[in-house]
Amino acid sequence: MKISITAKLFAAVLATALLVALAMGVAAHLNLKRGFLGYLNEQGELRLEAAVPGVTAGYRANGNSWNFLREHPELWYKQLRPLADDEGRALDPRERPPPTVSELTGATRRFALYDTDRRRVAGFEGSTAPEVERPIVVDGVTVGWLTMARFEAVSSAAERRFEDAQWRSRWLVGAGAMLLAAGIAVWVSRALLTPVKEVAAATHRLAAGEYGTRVHIEARDEVGQLAVDFNRLAHTLQRNEEMRREFMADVSHELRTPLGVLHGELEAIEDGVRTLDRESVRSLQAEVATLNKLVSDLYDLSLADVGALTYRKADLDVAETLRLAAGAFRERLSERGIKLALVLPEAPLMAFVDERRLVQLFNNLLENTCRYTDAGGMLRVSARLDGARVCIDFSDTAPGVADEQRAHLFERFYRTDASRNRQSGGAGLGLAICQRIVEAHDGRIEAKASPLGGLWIAIELPQGAA
């Protein structure tokens, strides 16, 4: 049988309260019993002390003999009456004094009188070895002993009534504590577990594919933090699902476009509408190259995502690599009417990188400039050493990218809605690959607004050995 966490928590709190109540009840019973018996014995000893003068006076008044008590035992309790009150004032022997606490508890019934030979004269017969005794001294001579047997258990009706009242009080307090514990257990179970159940239910919906599920818990404790983490996880899963769908749609579109062109070209050649000449072959090769680059970029991204993209890092002169890469694009940039400006140091600028991946990085950024920068513009490429980092900047002229769009430039298939779009020939994967390459080198890449009016790509790489 499956037991809910609410029932488990309720049972745990209730069981703990029950054990605590029982432990407190047992401890209170033991302490009260010991303390109560001690109190009775203490009061009895005080009463014993107060009875000594009366018993001594009776001995004197009856010819210095205990025979009057042997012959008239009914006089015994009269002899035990104190001659003075607690403040030392003499009491009238004709009046019966008010009963003391010890008399109410039956302590005087445990008093006994023994003569000098330790023979009982009067009083309690239940003890042969009294624990408390006081001498009866007359003219400096001990003529007897007044004794009291200690209380070992509650025996009198009044004492038993007192003990029973204590037990009833304990049971009432225990029952009240149990009811209170049960109420608190119910409240705690609901107050603490209701948000946990809400998160659990939301987790089931999330597992079923409802990525828009959110929980609204405003608690500032661990449960509240759990809700925050759950919402963050749900948002991430929702975003990943959206990106997956967008990715599939974008890949389908990017593949359909060149395949559609190829299909149309081949049908035209097959139907005789277009002749198979050098121009048509060049057009087919261009579409195949587009497909090949798209597939290669997708493959590189998939390897980068699982950390399988190979890197053979070594110390490399970044400035010289930039010169060679820019030189390879100089003619294309010139054809587009874009001026290239290199601001590079003459001294080697060493970084610990993979040369092949670094060239791929530079080629992607230079390709973007060729595709998207307006004719008559300019590209400025610079590199410098800043502390232990090598800083590389690609800054071009218009068109620029809006602030809210720059944060998405490194996402797959992302394009702005201005001039940097699919019509320029790009699939929107170049900057995503650039980001993976830079991060694999423990570097950082960032898109900013260019002071020239276009886009500024800032790259930082770790410095290599000089």
From TrEMBL:
Listed SUPFAM superfamilies: ATPase domain of HSP90 chaperone/DNA topoisomerase II/histidine kinase (SSF55874), HAMP domain-like (SSF158472), Homodimeric domain of signal transducing histidine kinase (SSF47384)
Keywords: Kinase, Membrane, Phosphoprotein, Transferase, Transmembrane, Transmembrane helix, Two-component regulatory system
The keyword Acetylation appears for this protein: no
Bilayer disposition of the protein: Multi-pass membrane protein
Catalytic reaction list: ATP + protein L-histidine = ADP + protein N-phospho-L-histidine
Subcellular localization: Cell inner membrane
Name of one Pfam family that matches: HATPase_c
EC number: 2.7.13.3
InterPro entries referenced in this protein's UniProt entry, alphabetically: HAMP_dom (IPR003660), HATPase_C_sf (IPR036890), HATPase_dom (IPR003594), His_kinase_dom (IPR005467), HisK_dim/P_dom (IPR003661), HisK_dim/P_sf (IPR036097), Sig_transdc_His_kin-like_C (IPR004358), TCS_sensor_his_kinase (IPR050428)
Enzyme class: transferase
Keyword Membrane belongs to the record: yes
GO molecular function, one term: phosphorelay sensor kinase activity
Any single GO CC term annotated in Swiss-Prot or TrEMBL for this entry: plasma membrane
Major location category of this protein: membrane
Protein name per Swiss-Prot or TrEMBL: histidine kinase
